[in-house]
Amino acid sequence: MAIQLPNPGTGNGSTGDNEFVLWTKVKNNFSDQNNAASRLVGTDDEQIPTSELAFKAAFSQITPIEDDRAVSASLDFNDLAAGSRRIMRGDSKNAPFVDPSAAWEVHTYKSYREGALTQIAFGFGGTSSYIRNRTSTSWGAWYAFTTNVNTYATTTAAGANVVVDSTGKLMRSTSSERYKEILAPLTLDDAAYDNAMQLAPIVYRSTADADNPAYHYYSFSAEELGAYDPAFALWRETETVSDDEGNVTEQPLDERIAEGININALLAFSHAIAIKQDKMIKSQAEAIATLTERLDAVTAQ
Hints:
Structural class: alpha+beta
């Protein structure tokens, strides 16, 4: 039922609701759970913006994707209101990343203070889900908090096929020619081979929390490999910055930092070294065979 508002009259005692009518309205307001006055507590900070049941009803309805709309400023993740649940196109503005073939189910929630929002984007088709916050008037960066369930449910005898970038985003490592503009075969001349032989593997103890400090490990220095060729290292090029109002953004570093090793690059380079060494061994074998024939000829005389 609709809320029944008591009529106080004009204050002269001869107008408005009598005592019976007044308290009947109060009772009805608080006894009807479908529209109780106690549930409509306002829209100010720290108050429920609408009745619990009305809010649930509104949030259970998804505003569908609008396929016939061109990408424009009006189709923007930043424009979604608190309490909304909407399907958005993959090429909408300010999506976690632009993918015309994808779509997102976006939930936008009011947070603890004026202007503060939390937005969650659930990706379709195996795409990760992302979350971000707006503390006042500016949105922070998107952060992935899930990956495709098959990432963890499926095992394989193949090598590692994922990489984590400096913002924490999990990405698949692609090797198909569909993702490559091939420049040339990787071959090493004598000078390049000599330089490659200067790269030194190391034995070290790890200071990472997940590693046993008593164990020793084998690898390379990412800094040394990156100095030899930037393609050998994985780089951090941004940092997470929070301003005085709590807005979080990713800002470029003045100088990038080597964080890890590009295993695919090392594998390809190691094979190029092996090919170079194979040619050297065959050339030396041919030279030895020639010298052996000459020696046998001299011995036979």
